Amino acid sequence: MSKTVVTMGLGCVTLFGALIVGFIYLGSTGPDIAVYTGRQIPKEYMATIRSLGLLEVGEDIRYFYSDALFDIETGFYFVTTDHLVLYSSAWEEPATIIPLDQIEDVEAEFVDSIWEDSFIYVTTASGLEVSFPVSSEQGGDKRFMQALEQSLAVE
Fold first, then answer.
1. What range does the domain containing 44 cover?
2. Nearest to 110 by CA among 139, 150, 84
3. 51 and 70, same structural domain?
4. pLDDT at 86
5. Burial code of 108-136, b = ≥16 C-beta within 10 A, e = fewer?
6. Predicted confidence band of residue 115 (pLDDT cuts 50, 70, 90)
7. Which of 59, 78, 81, 107 is the most buried (most CB within 10 A)?
8. Does residue 118 share a domain with residue 52?
């Protein structure tokens, strides 16, 4: 066997190993790909939410989802007992906080794939229209949607 073939083989094995290690690292450091219920949200995520001033005293998060790979500040979305909160560092105004009693309509585009997120579309009484992704894993998208629909039923 030539030296070039052995070198190329070792290079391929090394690259493959690096990719595996990279995927393991991503899976262990980034947010879970499922929707968290309020009690399951990691302490470091709660610390970020509080440091950004997105949660009022006494307000409880019902469902939380982040589509970020590493740092949740890239994008996260949650519904509380009183508000729908959408946050993305890519937006001109990173935080959108909508009182639940201002939500006029909620629709969803559900998907069954773990590779794609479902999308929820919200329209407020003032005419604001927003959409955000929610993971379909373990039915989290449907539970998140139900929490928003329940706020409409209260009116």
1. 33-154
2. 139
3. yes
4. 98
5. beebeeeeebbebebbbeeeeeeebbbbb
6. confident
7. 78
8. yes
Q: Read off the amino acid at residue 143.
A: R
Average pLDDT over residues 90-116: 94
Q: What is the pTM of this model?
A: 0.78
Is pLDDT above 70 for 5?
no
* Sequence letter at residue 110: F
Long-range CB contacts (< 8 A, 24+ apart) of 65-70?
Answer: 65/34, 65/35, 65/36, 65/133, 65/134, 65/135, 65/140, 65/144, 66/31, 67/117, 67/133, 67/135, 68/30, 68/31, 69/26, 69/30, 70/26, 70/29, 70/30
CB-based contacts of 19, cutoff 8 Å, min separation 6? none
Question: Encoding tokens for residue 89?
Answer: 């560092």
Task: Give yes or no: residues 38 and 91 share one domain.
Answer: yes
Place of tokens 């909160």: 85
Strand order in the sheet with 76-80: 36-37, 61-66, 76-80, 83-87, 95-99
Q: Scanning the structure block, which residue is given the tokens 């479902």?
A: 118
